[in-house]
Amino acid sequence: MGNGQREDIQHAFGRVREGSLAIAAPLSGEDCCAQSMPDTSPVKWHLAHTTWFFETFVLEPHEAGFAPFHPAFRVLFNSYYNGIGAKHPRPQRGLLTRPSLHEVLDYRADVDRRVVQLAARSTDPAIVALIELGLQHEQQHQELMLTDLKHLLAQNPMFPAYSAQDMEQDMAQDLHQDLRKDPDAALAPGAPAWIEFDGGLAEIGFNGRGFCFDHELPRHSTYIAPFELASRLVTNGEYRAFIDAGGYRDPALWLAEGWDRVATGELLHPLYWLVDEAGNWSEFTLHGVQALNPDLPVTHLSLFEADAYARWCGVRLPTESEWEFAARQAALAEGALHPAAANGDGLQQMFGACWQWTSSSYAPYPGYAPAPGVIGEYNGKFMVNQYVLRGSSCATPDGHARASYRNFFPAGARWQFSGIRLAR
Fold first, then answer.
1. Element (H or E) spanning 228, and its range?
2. How far is Cα 204 from Cα 190, in angstroms, rounded to an integer?
């Protein structure tokens, strides 16, 4: 490992680790400790767990004379690594009033200092690879910090804002160029275009340059029939038309489990939508409650809702292979704190607005093999009862998205920034 590589990884390490602290900076200690549901985690836990990852997988096997910052943290901040040992129950993370936020920050500072020292002295490329994996892992948790926090704040009847920045100014940061044009489209202003793709034998998966997670490999050939993809995401206004037309009252539109959730009242409208007695709709955002803007992408939907809307339109959701085939012609976008409206022509909002549900189950690619050892628990063991989402969201850290990225959640998950792109 040369000096340039050492400097690059140390710079990236400092930038990503500081990014997590920046997300937590506007919050109180009380904000950082609370947990709103079993699927979410407190901000304090995210700050500690990402540090635990570096301590456990980088320092413990490679630091001379290693000693843990605190022996109890090995259990408290283990997420799902059974090969490491015992774990504190996930639904009880919000009960960890001790250690304090201050102690967690001390933990981060201690581990950061030791990782930087190790990286500065080491000539082992395996250490750089582990640090890189830890940084990518932390960027995933930075997105979770925002989405988990949004769910927490939404439980407060005061609907407090995370960011005091004006929402329109924030979304202006989310503009990006449209690379694919459809000069033959002659549609009403604001209506989505259908962009044609010839399909054929396509190479799907990571292309071998830079970082990827193991489940993006191996790159492989798959046949894709000709298809069309909507030029942009479905909007709030379009989804409200689905609601007004009785979409949540028609069982013919819904997968069986989705309809069960509708029938019990769990699914009534997108998560964070609010309606007053006069029938006026608003939306809770990280900027607080805002009037529902019909032009913004509808977000915080389950797969069940995305699929029902597509059926109502007489079309379908894309497969993940179709999505990736199209996305290789789209632009990356920087995130904000809420998805911005479509801007211009061509294929838009593939990145940086909402994660997009696909009809593909989360499964291994042909020839997939998890990484050896405990680190191999990262992705492979979750390849059951999950669906793939593609793209990235407004909460995804800059530089973290790519066309081959595979996100995955259970079909009922809604607290992520998840939206709809139609296909046919």
1. strand 227-230
2. 31
Q: In the chain, helix, strand, coil percent, each to 5?
A: 40, 10, 50
> With helix as H, strand as E and coil as C, how does 339-378 read?
CCCCCCCCCCCCCCECEEEEEEECCCCCCCCCCCCHHHHC
Residues written for the chain: 424
CATH number for the region 3-154 comes to: 1.20.120
Q: What tokens appear for 131 in the block?
A: 């640090």
DSSP 8-state symbol, 294? T
| Cα separation, 195 vs 290, whole angstroms | 32
Within 8 A by CB and 6+ apart from 237, the residues are 294, 295
* pLDDT confidence tier of residue 179, bands split at 50, 70 and 90: very low
Across the chain, which distance is largest between two alpha carbons, in Å? Answer: 69
- Supply the DSSP symbol for 200: E
At 304, the amino acid letter reads F
- Report helix, strand or coil for 139: helix
* DSSP state for residue 125 in the 8-state scheme: H
Q: Which residues contact 163 (CB under 8 A, 6 or more apart)?
A: 26, 170, 286, 287, 337
32 within 8 A of 101, measured Cβ to Cβ: yes
Tell me the β-bridge partners of 291.
Answer: 282
Confidence grade of residue 74 (pLDDT, cut at 50, 70, 90): very high
Angle at CA 86, nearest 5°, toward 84 and 91? 120
Q: What is the pTM of this model?
A: 0.93
Q: What is the pLDDT of residues 256-284, one digit of tens each?
A: 999 999 999 999 999 999 999 999 999 99
396 Cβ contact list (under 8 Å, min separation 6): 139, 143, 335, 351, 352
Homologous superfamily of domain range 167-419: paralog of FGE (formylglycine-generating enzyme) (3.90.1580.10)
Domain ranges of the chain: 3-154, 167-419
CA angle 155, 148, 318 (to 5 degrees): 110
Q: Read off the pLDDT of residues 290-323 as tens digits, 9 standing for 90 and up.
A: 999 999 999 999 999 999 999 999 999 999 999 9
